[in-house]
Amino acid sequence: MADAAPADPADPASSFHKHDPGNYGAFSVDLSLSARPVAAKPPTAPLNNAAAAAGASANLFCTSSNSFCFQATIDAATGNAIITLQTQSNGWASVGVGCKTMACQNIYIGWRASGGASIVSQRSATGSVSPTISAKTDFTMVSNPTDATIYPTSTFSVSFMLPKASISTTSAMDFIYAFGPSPPANPDSPTANIAQHATADRGTFSLNLATGETAVVAPLINYALIHGIIMFIAWGVIPFISIFIARYLKAKLGHLWYILHMSLGITILILTTTAIILIELEIIGPLSVRFNSSLHAYAGAVLVFGMMPAQIILGYVSNHLFSPDRSSVPWWDQVHWWLGRMVVVFSWVVIFMGLVLFESTIVIKALFVAAILVW
After folding, report:
1. pLDDT digit string (tens) for 307-366?
2. Apex 103 CA angle, 119 and 162, nearest 5
């Protein structure tokens, strides 16, 4: 477009002035949208004058390929926020309100029931684990607002209303999102289990409902995954090397065997401590959700805070009381041997529990079992 009229406004063949650099662009539109039925919807109003000037899309966040979209509008009658989720996935879509990680108290998961209606389930999570059903809910199911942008490539969309106490309409908030490839096994139940999303099908964004400004937050660090990798190295690899040295290389290495054995033990301690710190960054809440939340947490606490320190102490005692003139192996040495074997076997169980808790695929679980059998 240009600010000046053609030289001869009455002549269709008249020459016209060149547009300014900022007064041009390109867009695409899917005309099939005009044939889509529109359900009855509650009245909505712009968030404020600034958001209204920017248009409804100012309150819209989408991934680069529109595989997931989040939009917020304000209900004119109540002033509450209406959240609209849509996805190209055939499974489910979710958003966590006021969160940067999966340690989130208000997660809303939507999917399509077998009869075509939409279901929203409110849940909470303490970290990278499957969210649990919330005892109380604060949302109300509504139809999609008239000014919601629904893309024709989306397989389903769902809208729900949140009270003003649950979401800020005056300042920026953080949100997490995820979407899954398959619907729940029982899609008609709000308490149905959902399949885990792919690593790439999640993220974090911030949205200011007062101005419509959105921003992508830096990719989430998957502390749970890093925790698992470090723990596998600490307990699924290093102990075999340490035990092999102590059992078969004493005569060949001399005192060096003990230096290597002790160094590997210290390495296990350092790696385990690092992994515990990382998983603590992933989980929020009191001790009741940190160490008492699952069998993996229980067993891991026994391993890390019970069996490992006992084994370290026994190793120190065995070395301190060692005498080259002894006629038999003392009981503390034998306890150190057998506790070491028990710790290693128990650590396999703890790792497998972690794989189950993390909802690892059957392939990963099978590879872990095969690796243990090979060792």
Report:
1. 999 999 999 998 888 888 888 889 989 999 999 999 999 999 999 999 888 778 889 889
2. 40
**Residue 328: CA atoms inside 13 Å, Cβ hemisphere, count?**
4
| Closest by CA position to 204, among listed 57, 58, 91, 61 | 61
Element (H, E) at 179: strand 172-180
Angle between helices 223-236 and 362-374 (to 10 degrees): 20
Q: Which helix (H) or strand (E) holds 262?
A: helix 256-282
What pLDDT is attached to residue 48?
33
**Is there a contact between 107 and 204 (Cβ–Cβ < 8 Å)?**
no
First to last CA, the chain: 72
Question: Could you tell me whether strands 103-112 and 118-126 are parallel, antiparallel, or unpaired per DSSP bridges?
Answer: antiparallel
In 3D space, the residue among 157, 141, 131, 182 whose CA is nearest the CA of residue 68 turns out to be: 157
The dihedral sign for the CA sequence 330, 332, 337, 338? positive
Q: Does the CA dihedral 252-258-262-265 come out positive or negative?
A: positive
